[in-house]
């Protein structure tokens, strides 16, 4: 060994010693197994001496059978009892199959977790959507309630205004009827019904505020008066003068007129009012003389629904002011 030869490391020495010990143990085991018959005889001899020292009588056949059984069982493999250690050992031996089974179980669990997560997310999203829908519906209802309350307040103000304008006792019933209908509609959340009542009340207010004159028509080519048989009875004539509604500026005023002949309702500015024969004849005579002396047949005053008739049966209270009218006719020769 020269100075340049490298020295063995301590780890190498320990490894070599371990290998030498392993070989030595194997040689001892092989040596003992090779001397098996001599060892069996030695063990049998010692057993006889031990039993003799104890004063126990055991025959040679029994001792020899026990020795043979001992040496036979000593080299026989006996599997260990079930337990965690054995389970882990078997798992390690069959680690490939175990790994595949574990992987399958993990995949199944992962798929279940993913499906459960998707289900939970879907349920949460559905619940969120339902909650948002309910919130939006509640907001919409709240807006409708606030709007209806505001419209009802405006409607009540309008009703008070109409009552303040009305002077005609006949208007009180109509105001009360329309107002009650509007309130009921509001309490039922019927905004359309409240709107209809509002329009009726405004139309009534406009009618109460309106002022105009009802004049006898005195123009060439148009009837000033007319008559017809009552229900086809040629023994009884009904007499009418033709009138028109005109506002203070001279513009025609359209009104709803119910006809006696067919009970139809029409919006017209020219219609015929029933009169007695005396007034009918007088109007005819004045027109034949050149002009009607006083063409104003009635007046509509502010705050009133009914007309203020100046002459005729309606002025005397002998006829219903709301009836005795014709709203259309045909011109003939």
Beta-strand residue fraction:
5-15%
> Considering DSSP H and I runs of 4 or more, what fraction of the residues is helical?
55-70%
> What number of structural domains do the residues give?
4
Please compute the radius of gyration using only Cα atoms. Answer: 63 Å
| N-to-C CA distance | 163 Å
Name the helix and strand elements from N-terminus to C-terminus, one letter apiece.
Answer: HHHHHHHEEEEEEHEEE
Shape: rod-shaped
Tell me about the biggest sheet? Answer: 7 strands, antiparallel
Q: Helix count, per DSSP? A: 8
Stretches with pLDDT under 50, minimum 5 residues: none
Can you give the mean pLDDT? 85
Structural class: alpha+beta
The count of strands amounts to 9
Word description of this protein:
This protein has 333 residues and is of the alpha+beta class. The protein has 4 domains: 10-73, no CATH class; 100-134; 141-209; 212-326, no CATH class. The protein is 57% helix and 14% strand. It has helices at residues 10-34, 36-54, 60-74, 84-93, 95-165, 169-187, 191-209, 277-289; strands at residues 212-216, 225-230, 233-246, 255-258, 265-268, 270-275, 296-300, 308-309, 325-326. Strands 1, 2, 3, 6, 7, 8 and 9 form a 7-stranded antiparallel sheet that branches. β4 (255-258) and β5 (265-268) form a beta hairpin. α5 (95-165) runs antiparallel to α6 (169-187), α5 (95-165) packs parallel to α7 (191-209) and α6 (169-187) runs antiparallel to α7 (191-209). The radius of gyration is 63 Å and the shape is rod-shaped. The termini are far apart.
Keyphrases for this structure?
333 residues; seven-stranded antiparallel sheet; 9 strands; alpha+beta; single chain; two-stranded antiparallel sheet; 57% helix
């Amino acid at each position: 060994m020269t100075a340049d030869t490298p020295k063995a490391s301590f780890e190498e020495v320990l490894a070599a010693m371990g290998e030498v010990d392993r070989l030595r143990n194997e040689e001892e085991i092989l040596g003992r197994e090779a001397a098996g018959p001599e060892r069996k005889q030695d063990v049998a001899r010692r057993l006889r001496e031990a039993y003799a020292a104890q004063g126990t009588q055991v025959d040679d056949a029994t001792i020899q059978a026990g020795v043979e059984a001992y040496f036979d069982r000593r080299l026989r493999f006996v599997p260990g009892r079930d337990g965690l250690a054995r389970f882990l050992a078997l798992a390690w031996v069959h680690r490939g199959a175990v790994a595949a089974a574990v992987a399958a179980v993990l995949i199944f669990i992962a798929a279940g977790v993913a499906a459960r997560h998707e289900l939970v997310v879907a349920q949460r999203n559905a619940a969120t959507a339902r909650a948002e829908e309910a919130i939006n519906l509640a907001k919409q209802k709240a807006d409708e309630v606030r709007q209806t309350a505001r419209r009802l307040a405006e409607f009540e103000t309008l009703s008070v205004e109409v009552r303040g304008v009305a002077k005609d006792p006949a208007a009180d019933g109509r105001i009360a009827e329309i107002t009650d209908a509007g309130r009921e509609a509001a309490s039922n959340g019927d905004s359309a019904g409240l709107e209809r009542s509002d329009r009726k009340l405004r139309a009534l207010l406009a009618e109460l505020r309106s002022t105009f004159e009802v004049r006898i028509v005195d123009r060439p080519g148009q009837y000033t008066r007319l008559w017809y048989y009552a229900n086809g009875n040629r023994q009884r004539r009904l007499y009418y003068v033709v009138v028109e509604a005109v506002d203070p500026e001279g513009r025609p005023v359209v009104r709803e007129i119910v006809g006696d002949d067919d009970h139809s309702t029409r919006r017209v500015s020219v219609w015929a009012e029933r009169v007695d024969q005396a007034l009918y004849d007088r109007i005819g005579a004045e027109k034949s003389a050149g002009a009607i002396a006083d063409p104003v047949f009635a007046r509509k005053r502010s705050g009133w629904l009914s007309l203020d008739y100046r002459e005729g049966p309606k002025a005397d209270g002998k006829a219903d002011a709301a009836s005795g009218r014709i709203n259309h006719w045909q011109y003939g020769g």
